[in-house]
Amino acid sequence: MSQQLPPSSPGRDSEGTDHGRNDDQAVRRDTPAGSAAPVSAPRAPRSAEEAVFGRPDHVTGAFDRPTGSAAPPPIRLRPPEHAELAAAFGRPTGGGEGPRRQPGPSRPVTPPEPTMWADERDAWRDPSAPAVLGPPALEAGTSDGDPDAEPPRAAARLSAREVLFGQRVKPTALGALFAAALLVGLAGGFLGRITAEGGSVLNRPDVTLAEADTAVEREPGSLAEVVSRVRPAVVSVDTGDGAGSGVVIHEEGYVVTNEHVVASAADADSPDIDVVFSDGSRAEASLVGRDQRTDLAVLKVEVENLTVIELGDSDQLAVGDTVLAIGNPLNLPNTVTSGIVSALDRPSRLPAAETSVINAIQTDAAINRGNSGGALVNSSGALVGINTAIREATPGGGSIGIGLANPVNQVRRIAEDLIQHGRVEHPDLGVNPVTRVSGNQYGAEVANVREGGAAERAGVQEGDVITKVDDQPVGGADELLLAVGQRQIGDEIELEIVRGDGVLVIPVILDSDQNR
């Protein structure tokens, strides 16, 4: 076969004439078909494969030399092996119109492209060219790098009617769509049921817990049985300005409480005091009388069929006995706490008056504000004291396990006097004592002697230190007031007094504190 030159070879026109080289180097195209074209420098004949695919004679390496140094030799054409092939596929004799074309009007000839290795700066053919980063293969926003290409059009959307009845979607696809919709609906219904039934799969409305058939048995005298009997006799006292507790001590409607619970209402022009029973019923109460020295008061309500508490004997108490405190602490009615008797005959000064000192029962049963006036009962349910005060670590700090109750034996005597006479008289010595501690000597020092009182008539002087009342030791002012308060008006007592370096014993007949 003869080698055909491509129409896009540089420097050639449509007739096949090479205008880029001289006549001696150019291949003569007007030679008849089948004859060898003359060349300027004939070489030894090569095989057909080497002639077609071999390296050009002027190229010794893998790349072409830069142009301009020497022109490469012309391309040699092999003579055709068969005259029939040359006549069918060869160029017409006389340098006609070049390569055979289809009959008809001629198409415009595409201008030839430059040879890819003709530029000295071509990085594809020059191994010494530096590496350079170029633009991406395709420009952003274009199709195949063509900026003039139109963007792809969005696919047409189908209506529901076309999807279901227009045969635009395969039946299998429709079935899958309906199955997915069914699954979504089932999941939504399941979640809705969970939400309606409580929002958790752990909730079961049909679950019920088994109940014990055997009732709880409580032995007679248990604390629960005691509370059930005593609690209806304990009431709440509401004065509008505050709240406390009280205990029903007589079926006629008499209720004992603390004086400081009703003090604000008692000082008002029109006292407003209500009593609230354990069942929630309420009744208006009247003030019968009050005693600041013992911090006790008695109220009366017009209510029938009252539950009355049983009065016990505080002298029979022993340290360690079980006791219950019942009352209305912090406006929480019917509250019950338990403890023991921590101490007996605890001198405790109260803020109601200068001489307000009680011989208190100390307990660790929880007592808080609002328990004042409530019941302290023993294990049999008998009243042994009226809860009156507490000791606090900080003001307003609440119970720290030190509660103080007024002994019921004193409560009985004061309540009877208030019910019978509306007031209470106490024995009075006629002195204002202060605690005195000097070395190993303890006692109640006489700060002043009231004029016309029992002490002045007996010859007691200011500065005397009282160390005993009869055979009862006196360690301070509170002990002296308690020792005198346990006597009766008109009783004669003997005072042991330290005056200077001597010790005297002076008899004194007690007066009434109403004679001041």
From TrEMBL:
This is Serine protease, S1-C subfamily, contains C-terminal PDZ domain. Residues 32-45 have a biased composition (Low complexity). Residues 418-501 form the PDZ domain. SUPFAM superfamilies: PDZ domain-like, Trypsin-like serine proteases. Residues 105-114 have a biased composition (Pro residues). GO terms for biological process: proteolysis. Keywords: Hydrolase, Protease. InterPro entries: Chloro_Bact_Ser_Proteases, PDZ, PDZ_sf, Peptidase_S1_PA, Peptidase_S1C. PROSITE patterns: PDZ. Residues 12-31 have a biased composition (Basic and acidic residues). SMART domains: PDZ. It comes from the Bacteria. Residues 1-153 are annotated as: Disordered. One of its GO terms (molecular function) is peptidase activity. Pfam families: PDZ_2, Trypsin_2.
